[in-house]
Amino acid sequence: MLPIISGREGDQIKIEGTVDLSGSMLASEEAILQAVNAVRNVATVEALKRFDADGDPIVVGGAKWYSKGQLSKIYSTHVYQPAEGGKTFCPMDDGARIIRKATPRFAKIVSHKFAHAAATQVMEDLEQNHGRPCLKASLQDLATHVGTVVQTKAESWSYATPELGRVATVGIGVDGTCMLICDQNWREAMTGSISLYDKHGERLHTIYVGAAPEYGKETFSIA
Fold first, then answer.
1. How is 162-175 classified by DSSP, letter by letter?
2. Quick check: 186 and 197 in contact, CB under 8 A?
3. If residue 59 lies in a helix (H) or strand (E), which one and from where to where?
């Protein structure tokens, strides 16, 4: 039996379901996984609803946008468009931080797995260990998009140096490594570090800097 919402209190919901534990231990574990995933789906639907609009006109960038009705995106959500037409806006995707139809946590899971394995292994991992079959192309598109977002953000991010004791010595290191780049053969990428030490020679903190291959290494020198 599929899980159902049996109670509500504010932002809290109570979900009830049934798990079939018959058969071998492995069969029971598979049944538990399916039941947990089913509960997750019900809870996720309710969580997404909190970020959806109600269909009334909204103002985006000073202009009034009108609902085009609910758009099915595996889930159903309101999408908006100005009176004169043009691109659409989805309040739920914006409010819930949906990335390529993936929730933030699923995008985080996929990105983490891609950092350690290839697309085929990630696809098999999700199906075998999480009970979540996915298309290889969809996973690759999601991972690529997350990487693009992080790369864009990284250009404006700065990392604060933690509170440290008295710094006695500053060590500066510069190095490089060759990278094989399509149509350009081998090029040198630059790396550098600034390390802070106390009077006993114990390292307190290290700041790492890197730059892609570049003629003249101007970007790396400025960093």
1. PP-S---EEEEEEE
2. no
3. strand 58-60
Q: Which two tokens stand for residue 188?
A: 């040198």
- For 107, other C-beta atoms within 10 Å of its C-beta total 20
C-alpha distance across the termini of the chain, in Å: 59
**Whether the Cβ atoms of residue 190 and residue 176 lie closer than 8 Å to each other:** yes
pLDDT, tens digit (0-9, with 9 covering 90-100), for 57-111: 888 777 888 887 776 666 677 788 888 888 888 888 888 888 888 888 999 999 9
* List of residues 6+ apart from 126 with CB closer than 8 A: 110, 113, 132, 133, 134, 139
β-bridge pairing 58-60 and 4-9: unpaired
Nearest to 47 by CA among 79, 92, 78: 92
CB of 65 closer than 8 Å to CB of 50: no
Q: How far is CA 101 from the centre of its chain?
A: 11
Q: Taking the model in full, what pTM does it have? A: 0.60
